[in-house]
Amino acid sequence: MKIAIIGASGKAGRVILEELAQRGHALTAIVRDATRTKHDTVLEKNAFELTTEELTDFDVVINAFGAAPGNEHQHVDLGRHLIDQLRGTSTRLIIVGGAGSLYVDPVKTVQLADTPDFPAAYLPTAKNQAKNLEDLQQTVDLHWTFISPAAFFDPEGPRTGKYQLAQDVLTVNAAGDSYVSYSDYAIALADEVEHHRHDKERISVVSK
């Protein structure tokens, strides 16, 4: 498939790009600064200026954008821009989401970001990513999947190839941990790219 990765030079974006490259997909890294990626095919452009014509050249667009501290609202702004550009098209949008919007109770009344121990430094990101998810859920003419990692999203963790999926409720693995490595998350995302099992859904990933 032809796949674009927005934020391909970021921590999660790089791992996702490597996983999809190993599977033989035709990848384009969309970055603001081409010197930050070693990938061969690069579109150097501000993501907020991407057009429908540019985006619909791909089968799948992955949004791995990471907002700098103080600019967390850009998760919402970019999300809305991508919705506007892709709605009514066949191009799929997959979002690297956060864990903060996952519910900690089965009746879905309390989100992880609203619990007392949630780190204050991550709260702006969590709230804005949650709003991005709400915008997607209110959009009917778009093929999207929002993929939340576990509470501990570990950039240094191993690539086990073993993961389990859930939906809106925070889940734990057999060891009782809400944990996923970047590499296992990338595997789960790549599997969703290839199999398209969760159209217009939020899913979450935990390493087994």
UniProtKB/TrEMBL annotation:
NAD(P)-binding domain: residues covered: 7-188
Domain of life, source organism: Bacteria
Matches recorded under CDD domains: BVR-B_like_SDR_a (cd05244)
InterPro entries named among the record's database cross-references: NAD(P)-bd_dom, NAD(P)-bd_dom_sf, Polyketide_Oxido-like
Gene3D superfamilies hit by this protein: NAD(P)-binding Rossmann-like Domain (3.40.50.720)
Protein's name in the database: NAD(P)-dependent oxidoreductase
